[in-house]
Write a sequence for this structure.
DNA sequence: ATATTGAACGTAAACGCTTACGTTTAAGGA
DNA sequence: TCCTTAAACGTAAGCGTTTACGTTCAATAT
């Protein structure tokens, strides 16, 4: 059975080349012949074989979306990467590109040297998502020769194409919000100091408070779960009972803090205002619902895909960091200091 | 630049065919020549071009994982398909298969007739996930000629390869649990009657209660969100104030019911026991934490992948429905009737 | 000793497209 | 009218594999 291209060619007594040209919208075929070819192709329900095309052009029209398997700082209870992936899908759906996914396991992360992981997938480019993908792996991928875009991550000492949320500003907004509500004794609940987005959030808080002459006690804990939020809360209020508002470095911890406060018999927000960060799905469903900083995950995915696609056109483009802006979402867990 | 296969062939003064045979572990090449070929391949860091191989064999070593975009019955606030996908990944990671994903949009769902969607992807098989993928689409995919496995779905009148959770039994267990706690006035909160998993859950409840001579009032609402859980709660208790326990058809609704009860000043579980279904991530973090029926999502993904892979070997195998068993998870939202 | 067999290996076509290059043809310029 | 030019189209090689079919040759059977 001949391929559809061949069939059209023979039916119309022309060459494969002309059919291919017409189908790909390339010059070199006359107006009305082109029309007849396209018509016939439609009738025959022609779908190009991306795989044959791939062999011929060494383009696969697939991109990889690879996420680190460990739950990260902000995604304990949230389909964080699911949302990002959705964004990637949305922009790819408008193109010919397909998405090939994989989870980055430790095995892959520790043995990137042979490029096997990327080469066997035959992808044109890749998106790497997750804050704790080790630098050395990113560097290795960069050397594989295909474009790389990072999401929720960056490289330590050199510029790279990446998409990140505006953590500094988000934290700044959060602090500002608390200050505007009249709070003057504000405590901070933070995760491990060396996580970069954590550090940036702490920095944003500190900066905003400093602007109005305030300094905040900071509790660092080594995880960012609900339970560590509780623990941080207890430590914070025992050291600083005068506090009327708490900023948490992510929503899970904020929710933990709310629980702990409620367990102690303090009302949120009447006695204590608490604000989170991330706007995970449950933030809106918590009781009280959580005031927080929204990260536009889907948009991050879209930006990542767009960046990657444009890189595919021009691989030499200079590395750019895209910072998506975040937004304060006022809900029930914060109110004016009484 | 010659391909690596050609390079090895010429270095060793043999033919491409022998190299290919050795690489693919096929008979027809002598023991020690084979060894030398493999050795050289390792040295050269050979990675087969799946795309060239695909052209030659018309196997792509990729499967599609396609999920319906609408949030379904049970996944409002839960990375349901994320977990399933994880399972799929885990088993694929042990094979040569890659995963190509896409979201089934309405546009795709309504125009499947041309197979464009599946053909252009050049996949060897596909997993379709989501309870409300229309029958006609599934049928169309079946006719595309490649194996199809359904997850969280089935076909109305003909057998098909699918993976589902044991909804009847789950509901049975839930009801049994309430009965064993001493409850005799039990109400049911359910979603739309025509959703099949919903119907099976209602059926399981009814059956278990009937076994001990009980019948339960059932409230059907048209969505399965937290808010509709609240609404259903109010309707239920206004019509049946004597009720001491509530079974909800999914966790979101159960949580809604808990909220509503708490708002009314009733304590859960002291005054009212409430049990959910699904065991979404938040169930464990709710206060009180939610007693519910756990669906092993990851395992469903694994089963789906395994089924698909075996179908790839033997496409003629008879359609099988795999039902994964569910489990009662006792937490805080239920207790003995006081 | 010859005939038979099968393992080892080579040849070359095929998979479905793209594309560099060559040829034809008609239009436009002098 | 003849020459130039470019658009239209054809030719055929090539992308990296696999595989049906041939060939060679040594081992075994007779």
């Amino acid at each position: 059975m001949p391929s559809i291209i061949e069939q059209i060619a023979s039916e119309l007594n022309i060459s494969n080349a002309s059919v291919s040209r017409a189908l790909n919208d390339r010059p070199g075929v006359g107006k009305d012949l082109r029309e007849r070819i396209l018509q016939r192709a439609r009738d025959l329900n022609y779908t190009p074989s991306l795989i044959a095309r791939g062999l011929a052009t060494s383009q696969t029209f697939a991109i990889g979306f690879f996420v680190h398997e460990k739950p990260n700082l902000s995604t304990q209870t949230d389909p964080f990467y699911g949302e990002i992936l959705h964004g990637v899908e949305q922009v790819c759906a408008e193109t010919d590109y397909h998405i090939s996914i994989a989870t980055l396991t430790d095995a892959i992360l520790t043995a990137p040297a042979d490029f096997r992981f990327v080469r066997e997938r035959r992808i044109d480019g890749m998106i790497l998502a997750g804050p704790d993908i080790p630098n050395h792996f990113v560097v290795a991928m960069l050397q594989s020769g295909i474009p790389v875009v990072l999401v929720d991550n960056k490289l330590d000492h050199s510029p790279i194409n990446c998409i990140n949320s505006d953590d500094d500003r988000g934290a700044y907004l959060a602090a500002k919000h608390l200050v505007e509500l009249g709070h003057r004794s504000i405590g901070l609940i933070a995760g491990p100091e060396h996580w970069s987005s954590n550090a940036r959030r702490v920095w944003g808080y500190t900066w905003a408070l400093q602007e109005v002459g305030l300094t905040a006690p900071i509790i660092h804990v080594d995880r960012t779960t609900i339970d560590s939020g509780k623990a941080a809360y207890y430590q914070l209020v025992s050291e600083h009972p005068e506090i009327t508002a708490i900023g948490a470095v992510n929503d899970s911890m904020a929710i933990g803090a709310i629980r702990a406060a409620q367990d102690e018999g303090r009302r949120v927000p009447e006695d204590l205002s608490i604000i989170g960060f991330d706007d995970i799905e449950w933030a809106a469903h918590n009781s009280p619902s959580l005031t927080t900083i929204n990260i536009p995950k889907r948009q991050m995915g879209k930006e990542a895909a767009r960046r990657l696609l444009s890189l595919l056109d021009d691989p030499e483009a200079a590395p750019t960091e895209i910072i998506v802006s975040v937004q304060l979402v006022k809900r029930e867990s914060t109110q004016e200091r009484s």
User: Anything to note?
Assistant: The two ends of chain A are 81 Å apart (CA to CA). Chain A touches chain B through 42 residues (CB under 8 Å). Chain A has a mean pLDDT of 92. The domain at 4-48 of chain A is CATH 1.10.260.40 (434 Repressor (Amino-terminal Domain)).
